[in-house]
Amino acid sequence: MNMQGYGAGLFALAWATGATANAAAAELNLYTTREPGLVQPLIDAFTASTGTKVNTIFLKDGLAERVTAEGERSPADVLMTVDAGVLVDLVDRGLTQSVTSPTLDAAIPATLRDDEGHWFALSMRARALYAAKDLDLTAITYENLADPKWKERICIRSGLHPYNVALTGSFIAHHGAAEAETWLTGLKANLARPAGGGDRDVARDITGGLCDIGVANSYYVGLMRSGKGGPEQQQWAEGIKMILPTFEGGGTQVNITGGAVARHAPNRAEAVRFLEYLVSDEAQGIYAKANFEYPVSTKATVDPLIAEFGTLKPDTIDIVEGVKFRKEASELTEKVGFDG
Fold this sequence. Notes:
Elements: H1 3-24, E1 27-32, H2 36-50, E2 53-58, H3 63-70, E3 78-81, H4 84-92, H5 102-107, E4 120-132, E5 154-155, H6 162-175, H7 177-189, H8 199-207, E6 213-217, H9 219-226, H10 231-238, E7 240-243, E8 254-261, H11 268-278, H12 281-291, E9 294-295, H13 304-307, H14 319-324, H15 326-335
Parallel strand pairs: 1-2, 1-3, 5-6
Antiparallel strand pairs: 3-8, 4-6, 4-7, 4-8, 4-9
Helix pairs in contact: 2-12, 6-7, 6-15, 7-15, 8-10, 9-10
């Protein structure tokens, strides 16, 4: 027997076996505040497409605190959140790292990603207007919600909920704090009931005749109309229509689901690969179909259950501009006693 050839053969076999094991062992660790039912279809599709195993930690709150506590030993590769403000906070705390990716830059508008590549929007939710189906209303501005003609006709959840704080922050970015305070005061005067409940409750109360219009997120319309929330919520959705408001001289206020590569990501290459997959045509289609969200990629198709309400034109200001004013927005909301 040629021992040299035998040894070379063993080496080749060992190398091939090791390479196969490494390929099979490709994985990444995802920390996310996203509801499991909404993110799991994307994880499953990514694993099916790439073979990469995704180990997921679902966190309701405290994402930044957990990663900070873990320090350099943190196993987190990708940090995924449902709020732009949380993404900015992660960057400010030094918990992310910069990523250069032509794929991400090409798919995501500049106003929906960090200038230094620390985070990227993956889907959008519009802060929309629900209106009684028979109401003669086809367009409205956010500014107009404070018009006295809507007195005792508007429903909305707590002004201190992150969804509404984000909207007020964007208002400040457009018009300044003084006008925002006047707007909040006028909006409060127009409420048909104290601010509270959830966005779906807005649809319920409009259908029940308690109010004529209300502020709520766009994707809830799809969830309710699809029947995923049960027959009662489907009935609420049948009693309303959705309008995409705009700021005067701007567009519709949106919030995002976004992702970032963790600063100490042990599987950095897979983390970038995962984010790039999430802006692919396949993944963006899943966002649209499973979650009734607006894709960030202009090539993706919006689900018909919300597409019929018109084309979303996101606000013209950078989403970070609104985030900068969230603290001030919360303070103004409390100052006017919005939830009182």
